[in-house]
Specification:
With 310 residues, this protein is mainly alpha-helical. The protein has two domains: 132 residues; 137 residues, no CATH class. It is built from 16 helices and no strands. Helix 2 packs across helix 3 and helix 12 runs antiparallel to helix 13. The longest helix has 29 residues. It is globular.
């Protein structure tokens, strides 16, 4: 897993100029620096995901969910406190604040990783026999099993990255579409629009995604172990009820407080508050969609859910 992270970090570092060029920003040099500041996060995410998968395999869903919420909360706090210190207390540059904001994801990942290590050590989950490496001769006979595991995991990767893929499509298509329909607009106006409509709201929306992820991960073991249709209907109903119980109050509260939230994090801007409200609504809808997809995954409806994303 960590090899994948290293390769991803190298690719992002190399292709940072290309990504900056197609993004809706004015200063491409600053964009390259900001993109490359994410490389460290790519080194942490794979090992964190592997550790979360280990907890999931042991049916410890609660630490898994807490680690996701903890990661997002720490990230948001780092963005808020770090930006305030850099811009207000030390009169630093906007680029420094942006770099810290992107690096905050690394800090959140480290905190979540340390939390899982603490829980695992406390519950004595890390046994040497669970991490024993088989001889190469034994591994060669497991080639078929490895291929089956990869085939089964690809739909999970596809579904799990759906929201991120949609955000990337927005980021890379905005510049082309905006220039096509509004050719008289400047690149500075485009950057302001992207910041208000996408970049800023997406710093707060992951808090909702953390709640969604916690519910989603509990859906798989609950549904996959049922043995009768009544149990299936009851389990599905409980998961959806749990999702709406947490998601609706949180979403409604953030929508009501979108103006104070936007002002607190990014300064007063009425358009920014409206975009934040729209982002919260769309994130909530995508979250429900993600939970339904997870239920379909647990029921082995892989082809149907992949078609629904196309």
């Amino acid at each position: 897993m960590e090899i994948i992270g290293i390769l991803s970090a190298l690719l992002m570092f190399i292709f940072a100029p290309t990504l900056s060029k197609i993004s809706p920003i004015v200063d491409h040099t600053a964009g390259i620096t900001a993109i490359r500041s994410l490389c460290f996060s790519l080194l942490i995410i794979p090992i964190l995901s592997a550790l979360r998968g280990y907890f999931q395999g042991l049916n410890y869903s609660f630490p898994f969910g807490v680690s996701q919420l903890l990661e997002q909360l720490v990230r948001v706090v780092c963005i808020l406190v770090g930006t305030y210190l850099i811009r207000v207390q030390f009169n630093g540059s906007i680029l420094s604040a942006v770099i810290l904001s992107t690096f905050a994801s690394s800090i959140g990942g480290i905190v979540a990783f340390l939390y899982l290590l603490f829980i695992g050590k406390k519950r004595n989950l890390f046994q040497l026999k669970d991490f024993y490496f088989l001889p190469l001769k034994s591994i060669s006979h497991m080639k078929g099993l490895a291929i089956d595991i990869i085939k089964e995991s690809l739909p999970f990767v596809y579904v799990g990255s759906a929201i991120s893929i949609l955000q990337l499509i927005d980021q890379f298509s905005l510049k082309v579409l905006y220039s096509l329909f509004f050719p008289q607009s400047s690149l500075s106006e485009l950057q302001t629009l992207y910041t208000l409509a996408s970049a800023n709201p997406n710093k707060l929306a992951p808090v909702l995604l953390g709640i969604i992820g916690s519910i989603t991960i509990s859906a798989l073991p609950l549904i996959s172990t049922v043995k009768s249709k009544p149990e299936l209907l009851q389990g599905t109903s409980q998961i959806l009820r749990l999702a709406f119980t947490f998601l609706l109050p949180t979403s409604i509260g953030m929508i009501i407080l979108c103006n104070p939230l936007n002002t607190l994090f990014f300064g007063f801007n009425l358009d920014g508050s409206r975009y934040l409200s729209a982002t919260i609504i769309s994130t909530s809808l995508l979250g429900i969609f993600t939970i339904v997809l997870s239920i379909l995954q647990a029921l082995s409806f892989i082809r149907k859910l992949c078609k629904s994303l196309q």
